[in-house]
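Weekend entry, working from home. Most of the wet-lab plans are on hold until the incubator is repaired, so I used the time to fold the two sequences that have been sitting in the queue since the last round of cloning. Logging both here for the record. First:
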Amino acid sequence: MTTTAPPPTLIGRYELLTRLATGGMAELFLARERGLAGLERLVVIKRILPHLADQASFVEMFLREARIVARLSHPNVVQIYELGHEAQTYHIAMEYIHGSTVRELLLMSQAAKVKVPFDVIVSIGAQSLRGLHAAHELRDLDGQPLGLVHRDISPHNLMCTSDGHVKLLDFGVAKTTTASVEATYSGNLKGKFAYLSPEQCLHEELDRRSDVFAMGIVLWEMCAMRRLFKRRTELDMMQAIIGGDVPRPSRFRPDVPEALEEVVMRALEVKREDRYESAEAMRRALEDAARSEDLQLGERPVAAYLKEVAGEKLEERRATVASAFERALTSDERRRLLHMTGSSSRSQSMLGQDDEDDLPTVVERPGAQGTTPGVARGKAADVRASMARDARPGADVGGEFPAARSVVMSPGGEGQAQEAGGDGWRVRGRRRRRLGVALVVVAAVVVASALVWVAQRDDAIAVSGPPLAMGWAPTVDPSVLQAELAPLHRELERATGRPVPLVITRDYADLAERLTRGEIAAAVLPPMLYVETQRREPGIELLALKEFDGGTSSDALLLVRMNAQITKVADLEGKTFCLVDRFSTSGNFLPRQYLREQGYEPDRFIGQIHWSGDHFQGMRDLIEGTCDAAATYSGAFLSGAEYEIPTGQIRTLAITGHIPQDTVVAGAHVSEDDAELLRRSLLDFDPRQALGVSQLGDNQRITGFSPASDEAFESLREVIEAERLDGESASGDAGL
């Protein structure tokens, strides 16, 4: 059946063809600009989210990129066509680029088992440096230099067009050194950690040589075909960057031309005084090296290589764009277009996978992968195992390790594993080389400034006293939880004045055990786990209910595949069920209770149980055919598409129950004063006031916290009693 396109939506003279992505601050559209005499062109529209249009700080951040790039007119910089205001919100119309990011180019080369040719490397480098120099030389209307520093140079932000041109993207975190022109955000760590300069890591004043260092990283990675500073934690990355122990790329690729290698290594000097003084100076040196090595410069080698490794994919994208004129695109088609715009949103790359997975790193052991496996599409158990590797004493990058006891994150970390114990919070991991005062500065940056970076705020938080660690069950992938919850923990630290580590435990039972053993001060317990834990440990104190989309309850769902010949619950008899965890309310207890209410005894009705580990993985398992039905809750189902789960392939067979939202509970060992401090901080939390967003996270969707009453859980206690009686009945039958 053909899907017809909906009536066109207009923003000014731009007809929106399809939404490509929605981020925390803006949404991205592919659009068609209609001009005079029937002229038209494809553009990308970046529009600030309507609910943020009245937030001055968000509007300023959104417009800052447009004001900077609009001043630039250079063939190696993405072009801004218009900054507009329509329907009470702002939008930017920018150039649509048909091509591939350098990051994708590296990944496709890796997949094809080929190495990027050196003439392609020098051509990409020279063009990128031309665009970067133009940005550095930008002046205001009075002719005064702005002192612009991009601060986010990386392979993700360099776009190669199909005709071989290279364009510099994403000035969203660029900063001028003249405070009168643009707002500065001193104290924020901007850019991707693996591409920061030493002075960024140390929070020193920046100049154009910071971007020169980042370009050195990009060229090094193209030469060596591996990541240079990618590590498991921000601390490790920044330690490596300021350490200055950079291996020569010829160590990994012996045929790297010596002249090219010398240019790369000079750009990577730790002391900025030893680097090239400008992007222009580096470009001239790079072109001289290319000529001395008889390498071809220009657009032609880039276009030829892009056609070789990405030609088929680019033609698919061209066809997808053409389809957008005729019909609504599917979610998969929209995701495949994202990197064509240079978007850094969560999306699949050209290869249909997380683009952080494939390239090895300089710390790789023989036969072991050196980078952290992606989590968006992985198995839950694999995710927890990969994130736990540094939690073992002496663990190095790579290798296979058993699951860790838990993962502890600082609010803003991307995977720093820690172990919580009676001796305090001890960072566990491979033996680190001491870097004196510099390492102290880096550590302070990671645990303090990274908080600011995640929340896009410029005020630091001073915390002291014993930590009030808060634990969360791995209801979805730990990386998703960490990303969504870090801003909340940051605000709790602001409100309490105490460290509030974010602890993601191994499973539901581990969360309850850590609370009752006193290893964490508070825990966010799913309703059924709260009832069970409170029965075993009556001294725990109910602090608050988490609000989801403004409500304090949600629906438990039983899902089946869209194409399954299953129309009623009876059709599932003897089938395989994907359940989440034995202590999951919506993922185990409620579907079992629902079966009883339909007249079935769960243990006899269910043919086999597959324990998926978390709600997202349960839906993935269902789609992949591991099971015939999956139990989850409405929040996971509604947000699944945001995390690349094709929820259009599954449907709700039954609502198995209506349950309170997760509870925040203080352990019995926590003092009354600390419990009250946490309760007050939770109830006062308002994401609009604190963070400028209507809700926290696409999955958690936290709109605040509400007072809690134990009476709301009486019906769940009845479910537990029914489970207990079923268990006794089964034991009796077995004895007959």
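Second, folded right after the first finished:
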Amino acid sequence: YHTDVTGTPQEVTAADGTLVWAGYIRGFGENAADISNSGAYFHQPLRLPGQYFDDETGLHYNLFRYYAPECGRFVSQDPIGLVGGINLYQYGSNPLSWIDPWGLTGTYIFTDGTTYYIGKGPESRMYDSMDYRIGGRANAIQFAHMDFGDDKLGFMVEHRLMEKYNARYSPDFANSERISSPGKRLYDAADAKTQRKVNRLANKLDSKYRASKGC
């Protein structure tokens, strides 16, 4: 991957240097063109930092909500409210110098005994999520976070853990059934070796969570 200064992909090349994908990413993240010199279509779903293109909706998945590039804004309000600024739908003041990544490499799970939640992001994001969903980390009776050093692995582990607990549909979980993680598509497309690795990591995170005793 070859990116600009903000981390937005501009080109993808093969090991031999062949250009397999190049995009024209407009100011607020819309991909206006796909170019390839390899003779075959290359699916490149990454957009602005932390965003993953959703083929079904045409929107960009950004962890807690979706982003509409043609509008340059999110389609729902910031889940942390005015703490994130007075514009609840804004991606960044200037996409050439500001980023709103949220799609980092870790995966986490926590509960206060009543509300359960599975999410993706750094450890600091887990604590922010605790503040928003259970009134703070002091109320968490069990929690676990693991950083896998790879964004795609994080998405796939999140998916497998959500599947294990039926988190999208269980009334005990605060996860929304309307939000579909890219992890499912990544996992379904992965080879058997990668799927086994993801399953091991998901089980490891779950074991860490089950063994935890509060914050």
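Plan for Monday: verify the second prediction. The chain has four helices and eleven strands.
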